[in-house]
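Submission sheet (multi-component)
Chains listed below:
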Amino acid sequence: DAGVIQSPRHEVTEMGQEVTLRCKPISGHDYLFWYRQTMMRGLELLIYFNNNVPIDDSGMPEDRFSAKMPNASFSTLKIQPSEPRDSAVYFCASSFASKETQYFGPGTRLLVL
Amino acid sequence: GENVEQHPSTLSVQEGDSAVIKCTYSDSASNYFPWYKQELGKRPQLIIDIRSNVGEKKDQRIAVTLNKTAKHFSLHITETQPEDSAVYFCAARDDYKLSFGAGTTVTVRA
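Outcome: structure written.
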């Protein structure tokens, strides 16, 4: 199994641009989580899906952030427009059922200039 | 919501010594407590976890203890080695959502 796959691994963009981060969960996992990691705020849960349906998006910081999961093997996190304070590492994680271990992807390191 | 506090924020130990990291949580409904290790530039990786019906769990040099009454849990690493140097995160889950501690940077001195 390839594990959770994220792309791109690094993204540098200018303020105001749209950014799309992608995630492919482990096959068979029915929960998908998006986290953001910064030095100041640590690891924060942004949103999670169960069977492709968003369950809790209370961690999404602003309306500039949106996430979708069109099918069981693909999810996107979009930031539009991006701002310098969005610079962080964004992790996707997946699990089989809510009570099981969450496996993290390699992360996307985002820098907004 | 759940609030997880983790101490210390940094820990330096001599190779071969033990390291202990402590976490407290606020929500008595939390029932699952994983520990993740994150090396520089890498993803968090699960190293050990414990569920609320167990008081202690051990895996080779790593052990975790849980005190549900006091709402705290600890990670113990014995016979530390240079490859144990990393950031360690505790977390608590109340049914579906993981809340993470702020992390402990462990440095093992040769």
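Remark: The two ends of chain B are 41 Å apart (CA to CA).
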